[in-house]
Amino acid sequence: MIVEYYRPKDVSETLEIIKNPKIKMVLMGGGTAINRFSSESFAVVDLQDAGLNSLHEKGRILEIGATVTLQTLYENDNIPLNLKTSIYRERAQNLRQVATVAGTLVSSNGRSPFATAMLALDAALSLKPDDETISLGDLFPLREEILGSKLITKVAIPLNVQLAYEYVARTPADIPIVCASVAKWPSGRTRVVLGGFGDAPILALDGPESGGEEISAADAYRHAGDDWASAEYRQEMAKILVNRCLSKLEISK
Ligand SMILES: Cc1cc2nc3c(=O)[nH]c(=O)nc-3n(C[C@H](O)[C@H](O)[C@H](O)COP(=O)(O)OP(=O)(O)OC[C@H]3O[C@@H](n4cnc5c(N)ncnc54)[C@H](O)[C@@H]3O)c2cc1C
Question: Which of 44, 97, 135, 198 could be joined to 110 by an S-S link, Cβ 3.0–4.6 Å?
């Protein structure tokens, strides 16, 4: 239950509020995850006026403010086409207009198409108050421990990569049972990420050049069994989906 509400006007006011909390204090992006029923009492710091909702291109990097909504990012013409696909698959339009980029990454699980694609892009998060930068891959396993009372101010992604995203689900609009995203840099660097299972998407491969993607994918999902699918099924599908991603990247060269 929300028992206190703050609406800071900028980042420094936000940091001041969260510095010495007397009760549990939760940063609020779109609030769509926070507003779910909870018997716990907590204060919220609503970030909607904190000035974190802009997009900046710096050379080959896109800096996405933490409170940029999924819909705003979806409508940006410069992001990789398949990042758009992953956003489209993440939530229906109503939720995309409210849910923020940071809030979605913090609250997503392994079945998130957007988190899968952002991990393939090796997204980097900027944190205050210590001005740290942390990769999404480092954040995922330790979200609560790392974030504590830290504020994500922006998320940076490269714009000079090719990105593919493929998935299988019960229906085309459902969240994936298995999904794969492959990012390829002009240098040849290739990252393969799998989603559809567990607490967070998994990095299967990050290599300086192509090669071994399917084997790495099957290996990464060797224990990926749950009520939705067996590990054997996910391994087979992961190989097929990664192969499809690689074919699409080859065609779009
Ligand atoms: C009808 C409905 C269906 C949903 N379906 C799904 C679903 O299928 N899968 C799913 O995963 N979720 C689902 N959700 C939950 C929610 O929509 C998503 O997780 C959403 O993308 C969260 O984004 P948000 O901006 O609303 O986050 P918020 O609710 O504002 O915050 C989520 C978390 O992120 C933290 N946070 C937010 N911004 C920052 C920041 N700048 N710095 C540090 N921490 C921050 C918050 O403290 C909180 O812990 C659903 C919600 C609704 C209402």
Answer: 198
Tokens read off for 176: 């994936």
CATH 3.30.390.50: which residues of the chain? 162-251
Tell me the pLDDT band of 38, cut-offs 50, 70 and 90: confident
User: Residue with the nearest Cα to atom 22 of ligand 1?
Assistant: 104
- The third-level CATH classification (topology) of the domain covering 55-158 is 3.30.465
Domain ranges in the chain with CATH number 3.30.465.10: 55-158
Please report, in angstroms and rounded to a whole number, the separation of the first and last CA atoms in the chain.
51
Q: Cα separation of 214 and 14, whole Å?
A: 45
Q: What tokens does 153 get?
A: 């101010």
Residue type, 11: V
The model's pTM: 0.95
Report residues whose beta carbon is within 6 angstroms of any ligand 1 atom.
26-34, 47, 66, 95, 98-100, 102-104, 106-109, 112, 147, 151-152, 175
- How much distance in Å is there from the Cα of 126 to the middle of ligand 1? 18
The domain defined by 162-251 folds into Enolase-like; domain 1 (3.30.390)
The answer to whether residue 251 scores a pLDDT higher than 90 is no
Residue nearest to atom 34 of ligand 1 (CA): 103
103 CA from centroid of ligand 1 (Å): 5
Q: What is the pLDDT of residues 151-170, one digit of tens each?
A: 999 999 999 999 999 999 99
